[in-house]
Amino acid sequence: MKRMQLTGIALLLMTGIPVISMAQDKVEADIGADLVSGYIWRGQDLGNVSIQPSASVSYKGFSLSGWGSVGLDKEDTKEFDLTLGYSTGGFSVSVTDYWFDGGPEYFHYGAHNTSHVFEAQVGYDFGPLAVNWYTNFAGADGVKANGDRAYSSYFSIAAPFKLGGLDWSAEIGATPWETSFYNNGASGFEVSNICLGASKEIKITDSYSLPVFAQAIWNPATEGAYFVFGISF
């Protein structure tokens, strides 16, 4: 439900946009963690200062990744997400299982007794422009005013660019229809995320640089505005 992959390597990962990748001939794995000043996901405020670890393994375009978030404020929600994906060229597709505490425990998957949200993603990165669509298809999804499942969805368009020696990304995201899942209850089409972010690497030694990033985020639907800073390890 609350994924925001923050890495200083590329701002596209900050906005949840798959990076163009070619199928590799050997298994590749990675682990990392981000320390962020605030947890903002698709224009929504989901927590304060947080540590967000991640791990992934990939082979021939297929990938399996885990991601989590733990806030320093004890009242912040803890989160654990698993994503199975496939990418080739600029095309990507994935399914994510989002889970967060505060409700039914992890192994509860009942239609009306679960804290899991299952989301499907499809997207294409054209290089100068990346487009992604996300839809919840099962789990603790939002509802419409009449109580029906909303199949809550979100789509985004993002463009990377370089300016002043930094890597930048500009993104706009919106909800296409009514749902209680986004923006404290989206009544229909709503622009919920306007984001401008930048990243750079600070040289620490001859062999190590520390990636850092910053984002300015506006949510016109909730009239929220945020500025986030993060460090990747």
Automatic annotation (TrEMBL):
Signal peptide residue numbers: 1-23
Keyword tags: Signal
Domain of life: Bacteria
Official protein name in the record: FrrB
Organism annotation: Phocaeicola plebeius
